[in-house]
Amino acid sequence: MSEEMHEHILPDGTVMKHSHTHTHKHTKAVLNRMARLIGHLESTKRMIENGRDCSEVLIQLSAVDSAIKAVGRIILKDHIEHCIVDAIKEGDNQAVEELNKAIDQFLK
Predict the structure, then answer these.
(1) What 3-state class would DSSP assign to 58?
(2) What percent of the chain stands above pLDDT 90?
(3) Helix or strand or coil: residue 14?
(4) Are 48 and 82 in contact (CB under 8 A)?
(5) What angle do CA 108, 21, 101 make, to 5 degrees?
(6) CATH architecture assigned to 27-106
(7) Which of 21, 63, 80, 96 would staple 3 via disulfide (CB 3.0–4.6 Å)?
(8) pLDDT one-digit tens code per residue, 92-107
(9) Domain residue spans in the chain?
(10) What is the average pLDDT across 4-27?
């Protein structure tokens, strides 16, 4: 896997470079959940193709939505525990600003 370097320029002009290619404690769990989620979504699609009752489809879509949100929460917690903690140690306030934007999008 190639490393993608990313840079932030701090208010004092210092350039901080770091890689966004990294692993987290829960990467495997997230990938496993994503695989199950994709399977669940495909099965919901088949329900629609087969003309299943709309109420059943809506219940399945609600389960998929909840599962997506759960994966998002795991990723968010992992990001805070690793990336944000490291960024704060390095004085990288831009990472916190980016996190705030991501949280705003995530919670829409």
Answers:
(1) helix
(2) 42
(3) coil
(4) no
(5) 20
(6) Up-down Bundle (1.20)
(7) 21
(8) 888 888 889 989 988 8
(9) 27-106
(10) 66
